[in-house]
Amino acid sequence: MQTPCSGPRCGPLTGSDRGGASWTCDTTPVSTRPPLVPHWGLATVTGDSMRPALRPGDRLLVRYDRRPREGDVVVATLADGTLVTKRAVERRTTRTGEPAWWLLSDDPRRGVDSRHRGPVRDADVHGVVVMRIWPPGRRRAVPDSCGA
């Protein structure tokens, strides 16, 4: 059973950066849930911080059940509640010792990232961007930090 909720840890994220996001909670008891299946969703880029890899208006296919690796572009929530698309650069820990990711913008002159808000807890990294699906002329896998 799916019910709406407002918390960032409630379930798979669907929608876009800033304002267009919605969350769902799976209230089915863990013991009766079917085996996990991939969770997919879409995100829309709204700022310039991920240029040149991503541009405003790009639509992204996001996989919510995949663990990030260094170099992946991810959808995450920063400590101040801002929903962002950033690059997972390296593993870190929070001040409380929780496992976390250091997330950076591709363009260091733009946007807010871990340099401003600190490491992002694993629980706040919602999914990994698999590919850009819009606009059609730019449809392809999102390049990693090395441009591959």
TrEMBL record:
InterPro entries: LexA/Signal_pep-like_sf, Peptidase_S24_S26A/B/C. It holds the Pfam family Peptidase_S24. Residues 1-29 are annotated as: Disordered. Residues 42-109 form the Peptidase S24/S26A/S26B/S26C domain. This is Peptidase S24. It comes from Nocardioides flavescens.
